[in-house]
Amino acid sequence: GISGKSQLLFAVVFTTRYLDLFTSFISLYNTSMKLIYIACSYATVYLIYMKFKATYDGNHDTFRVEFLIVPVGGLSFLVNHDFSPLEILWTFSIYLESVAILPQLFMISKTGEAETITTHYLFFLGLYRALYLVNWIWRYYFEGFFDLIAVVAGVVQTVLYCDFFYLYVTKVLKGKKLSLP
Length: 181
Prior knowledge:
Elements: H1 4-17, H2 28-51, H3 66-78, H4 85-99, H5 102-111, E1 113-114, H6 116-143, H7 148-170, E2 178-179
Antiparallel strand pairs: 1-2
Helix pairs in contact: 1-2, 1-4, 3-4, 4-7, 6-7
């Protein structure tokens, strides 16, 4: 199934990214969406670890997240746009999001297969991030905006998905169950 550790990392991503809720107001829509992202991510973690604990496969969800959090934390202190707490936490969220899927991919590699619903979820999660790349190209072309940190992190995340995308297209879209060779 779904990696609880990846979902927990995504909750940390949205929490650290949207701390600006306390310092700046952009619009009611923006504030509402940030709160919805945070609430849904923690609700998902709650459902995995509490409500549906009996169906959670903790024996295969064994990725050590400290191997992601510690280097990402260090990198966010070293490479950021501005050495301020909110900017460092925003940068941390960008870097962490790029690798937050690793526990899920590790879990699939450990079990050797994934249910169809899980593969669809992962495909659309990866597609969401790949569409960010399109957004950055659009913004650069029309607005002249370019954020090297976000672009590099997005490319890293998309590259991590490439092998999964290949298996998804060659197996799942042909009606077969995703199983690793």
